[in-house]
Write a sequence for this structure.
């Protein structure tokens, strides 16, 4: 899966993260699970006491026989966000249903070719949860962000208060883009009349 290469939004975990004196800080890491078992991995990690999040939304599915039903669809396949310390992460990666943790390819340098682990800021997790929880329109993930355009805030509807970048489209609609570091962007189409410039 392609990822955002905008380094200014990237946070990396230090090799000694979690080893400081006092309380070890918890950060959102991205676990890659085996065989697309995001939901069961989320449940199993939860039973072990870890805070987790799988990005998902309710979508309408239509079967060949015409039957319709809302189903829970995972937005980012094979990925489970896990909030934990570095020490906890080392234990989690050894679990049989975890393949590995995502690395930050952008942060690797010639001096240190080892790729640090990808860390997603809390604010972006909160924004993604809000967007998926409030949107009546399906949200999609795009592999790379659009070119930076106007920053906007939604002023009406279920997504009121959501801030993001916008790409104008035809018929008075706009695609609202919310960046999720390293994973790309969450995108939803919204009526342009519900947006205002962010000052």
């Amino acid at each position: 899966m392609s990822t955002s290469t905008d380094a200014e939004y990237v946070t990396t975990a230090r090799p000694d993260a979690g080893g400081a004196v006092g309380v070890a800080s918890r950060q959102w890491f991205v676990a890659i699970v085996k065989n697309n078992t995001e939901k069961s991995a989320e449940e199993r990690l939860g039973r072990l006491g870890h805070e987790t999040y799988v990005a998902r939304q309710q979508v309408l599915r239509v079967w060949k026989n015409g039957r319709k039903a809302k189903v829970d669809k995972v937005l980012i396949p094979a990925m489970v966000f896990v909030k934990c310390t570095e020490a906890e992460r080392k234990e989690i990666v050894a679990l049989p249903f975890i393949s590995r943790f995502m690395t930050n390819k952008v942060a690797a340098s010639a001096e240190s070719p080892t790729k640090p682990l990808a860390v997603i800021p809390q604010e972006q997790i909160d924004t993604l949860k809000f967007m998926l929880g409030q949107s009546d329109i399906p949200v999609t993930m795009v592999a790379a962000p659009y070119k930076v355009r106007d920053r906007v805030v939604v002023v009406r509807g279920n997504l009121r208060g959501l801030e993001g970048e916008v790409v104008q489209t035809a018929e008075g609609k706009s695609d609202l883009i919310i960046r999720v570091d390293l994973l790309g962007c969450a995108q939803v189409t919204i009526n342009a009349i519900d947006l205002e410039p962010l000052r």
In short: The two ends are 34 Å apart (CA to CA). Residues 53 and 103 are 18 Å apart (CA to CA).
